[in-house]
Design a protein that fits this description.
FAD/NAD(P)-binding domain; alpha+beta; binds flavin-adenine dinucleotide; Helicase, Ruva Protein, domain 3; 32% helix; 2 domains
Length: 408
């Protein structure tokens, strides 16, 4: 019997291996680490946001690169299928804010356990500490794979599910890109995706540790509005991070290659200018006999007050009842359009996903098979597909893994 080799025991590889084995294939899964799913283990802050409960079209709307490529995969193995698989193999799930799905236990290890059970129940031969060095090809035909300990495993079909380039201690060191390149595939340049951003302004660093809720961020490149995001963010020693910033990074990474990006932080997106003005007038009436520096505590977190005062140009000791309408207008503008300059993204190793990867034009979207070499399949993050946070990236890994496993 011919073997099928799956390279990579992450989310995509485990689903691919289990699915192919369920069809009666003899599957060998090769994982270079001494455990399966090291990256899954750290997902969702150790809780693993394994998918999202929205309907499929909505899931697709959260894919920021090559969404059309994913239609077959997402409809072949849906979020319900992921949840059912978890339930079948002993990991019940729950739905949280934003339709995010987590294991009921809040333990990512339970997701790994379920995937391992799925594979073992269908007879996948799991080999740990098995690092693939090369895919062996002769006359355009797959002969097998060679491992770093010189072992050769012969096979006719290989699923490459080696992940991306970030958090490399989890095992994703970009090997799949090298294999694919050698097989004649083109690689869309690799960049960090869902990654914190570095800013130029000194005041940003003064706010280190401050997190803000219900804010919006608007990114602008050369007067062109690129994207706006609402939600939470946090200031860090290098710039900004948090959900809004990570999502924003997926929209601006192509522009950042060309130059700096201006982002405007709206601290009060729920209020239009008039309502915010009325709100400030009320506060100024309340604190009319106080100095400006002692009038903003109802409006802003205390850490932000000296920064806003400094940027407003209004003297901090000015009495509130002497602040002019023009000065108030300036303050409103600052609160709704606080500018920051994004100079670069943090390094790829700090990214949640790797943007770029195997060119989707060279992969059949209905089977995940290479259009260049028969018998080579791709699944998961190694492919040039990106999505936002919320369980979408693991759904991509599971769905593409399933499709590869069904067609291999
Ligand atoms: C901190 C963090 C949190 C995240 N949180 C979430 C979340 O909550 N929800 C979500 O949807 N996504 C999340 N992601 C993204 C998600 O983890 C990835 O998109 C997903 O794991 C990709 O799955 P994969 O199977 O393609 O790759 P991986 O999970 O990276 O698996 C690839 C496997 O291949 C193995 N491998 C690589 N090269 C070789 C080789 N030469 N030989 C043998 N084995 C090899 C690696 O050791 C690894 O085990 C998070 C990512 C990070 C970094």
């Amino acid at each position: 019997m011919e073997h099928i080799v799956v390279i990579g025991g992450g989310a995509a590889g485990m689903v691919a291996a289990g699915t192919a084995a369920k069809r009666g294939e003899h599957v060998i899964l090769l994982e270079k680490n001494d455990t399966l799913g090291k990256k899954i283990y750290i997902t969702g802050k150790g809780r693993c946001n394994l998918t999202n409960n929205k309907d499929i079209e909505e899931l697709l709307n959260h894919v920021t690169r090559n969404k059309n490529f994913l239609y077959s995969a997402f409809y072949s193995f849906t979020n319900d299928d992921v949840i059912n698989l978890m339930h079948e193999y002993g990991t019940p799930t729950k739905v949280e804010r934003g339709d995010r799905v987590f294991p009921q236990s809040d333990k990512s290890s339970d997701v790994i356990k379920a995937l391992k059970k799925f594979m073992l129940s269908h007879g996948v031969d799991i080999k740990l500490n098995a690092e693939v060095k090369e895919i062996l090809i002769q006359n355009n035909e797959i002969k097998g794979v060679s491992l770093s300990d010189q072992t050769i495993i012969s096979c006719k079909k290989v699923i490459i599910a080696t992940g991306g380039m970030s958090y490399y201690t989890t095992g994703s060191t970009g090997d799949g890109y090298k294999f694919a390149k050698k097989l004649g595939h083109s690689i869309i340049p690799l960049r960090p995706g869902l990654v914190p951003l570095e800013t130029e302004e000194a005041w940003v660093k003064e706010l280190q540790g401050l997190s803000l809720r219900n804010i919006s961020l608007k990114a602008i490149y050369k007067n062109k509005e690129i994207h706006t995001e609402f939600g939470e963010m946090i200031f860090t020693h290098y710039g900004v991070s948090g959900p809004v910033v990570l999502s924003m990074s997926n929209y601006i990474n192509d522009y950042l290659k060309k130059g700096k990006i201006r982002v405007l932080l709206n601290l009060k997106p729920a209020l239009d200018e008039d309502k915010l003005d009325q709100r400030i007038i009320r506060d100024f009436e309340k604190y009319s006999k106080k100095q400006f520096k002692n009038s903003l505590q109802d409006l802003l977190p205390s850490k932000l007050i000296p920064v806003i005062i400094g940027l407003s140009g209004i003297p901090e000791n000015k009495y509130v009842n002497q602040i002019t309408k023009d000065e108030r207008k300036k303050l409103i503008n600052l609160l709704t359009n606080l500018p920051m300059t994004i100079s670069k993204m943090r390094p790829i190793n700090e990214a949640i996903i790797t943007s770029g990867g195997i060119n989707v034009k060279e992969i059949n979207p209905s089977t995940m098979e290479s259009k260049k070499i028969n018998g080579i399949y791709f699944a998961g993050e190694v492919v040039d597909i990106d999505a936002l946070t919320g369980g979408y990236n693991l759904q991509i890994a599971f769905s593409t893994g399933y499709l590869a496993g069904m067609n291999v």
